[in-house]
Amino acid sequence: MKIDIITLFPEVALGPLRESIIKRAQESGAVTIKAHNLRDWASDKHRRTDDYLCGGGQGMLLKPEPIFAAVEALKTDESRVLLMTPQGQVFKQAVARRMAQEKHLIILCGHYEGVDHRVIDHLVDEELSIGDYVLTNGAVAAAVVSDAIVRLLPGVLGDERSSQEESFSDPSLLEAPAYTKPIEFRGMVVPEVLLSGHHSKIMEWKRVEAINRTRKNRPDLLDE
Ligand code: ADE
Fold first, then answer.
1. Which of 50, 22, 18, 48 is nearest to 153 (CA)?
2. Is 184 among the domain residues?
3. DSSP string spanning 141-176?
4. For residue 139, what are the domain limits?
5. Which of 31, 95, 107, 187 maximizes the CB count within 10 A of its CB?
6. Same domain, yes or no, for 7 and 104?
7. pLDDT per residue over 55-79, tens digit each?
8. What is the pLDDT of residues 104-147, one digit of tens each?
9. Residues with CB under 6 A from ligand 1
10. What atom in ligand 1 is closest to the CA of residue 134?
């Protein structure tokens, strides 16, 4: 897979992707990730990428010309163009799984009050939000989305099971609590059933605890 991120802050997008599993995924060739500075496609003498809103209103908007130029320079027949924006559909594990099937993702990062709507109407395949809050720019969101997609690519996680068994593989249930050694720590003990070696009892315990945890932290998932 190839990921091209278009942003005013390439270092913000790339920083989190330069460590650990995603770093190794790039070294192994499972993915190539590049971040491009939108300003490189600004053609006027001040290299402006933003402008005032037509019709008035607070703030600035990213101009269409540099974004069209950037996407047209990077796009092929196999590209899917995503825009990071709080106005997008919420990015969930199912979306990550679908995106992991793509060959080439171009991720546009919004900034200021967003982008000129002609970009969305004529260039963007999908608008994605990473949650119901507003970040200062989409580069952080692009890193989040890239991380979630790349870890699903074949061979990226050493243990294939770890991406299948975790929370959101079953989108209506969180993961059960998990413990490691020591078995007793400051008087706090690991639940006995986990030490019993009784596989079906352990699975049943995990299911009950997963439901309890979901009820406590994400009751909305049980409603779905
Ligand atoms: N840009 C600003 N806030 C965002 C969010 N919540 N998701 C995606 N992009 C954003």
1. 22
2. yes
3. HHHHHHHHHHTTSTTSSSSHHHHHHSBTTBTT-PPP
4. 2-150
5. 107
6. yes
7. 999 999 999 999 999 999 999 999 9
8. 999 999 987 899 999 999 999 999 999 999 999 999 999 999 99
9. 84-86, 110, 129-131, 133-135, 138, 141
10. 3
128 CA closest ligand 1 atom index: 8
Report the SS3 class of residue 107: strand
Q: Which residue has the tokens 């010309």?
A: 65
Q: What's the pTM?
A: 0.94
In a domain, 73, yes or no: yes
CA 141 to chain centre: 6
Question: Closest Cα to atom 6, ligand 1: which residue?
Answer: 86
Q: How many angstroms does the Cα of residue 85 sit away from the middle of ligand 1?
A: 4
- Structure token digits, residue 169: 């593989």
Q: At what angle do helices 138-150 and 20-27 cross, to 10 degrees?
A: 70
List the residue whose alpha carbon is closest to atom 9 of ligand 1.
85
Nearest Cα residue to atom 10 of ligand 1: 85
Please say which residue of 96, 117, 150 terminates a domain.
150
Taking the centre of ligand 1 as the mean of its atom positions, its distance from the CA of residue 30, in whole angstroms, is 26
CA 91 – ligand 1 centroid, Å: 10
H helix intervals, the chain? 10-14, 20-27, 64-74, 93-99, 117-122, 138-150, 160-165, 199-217, 219-223
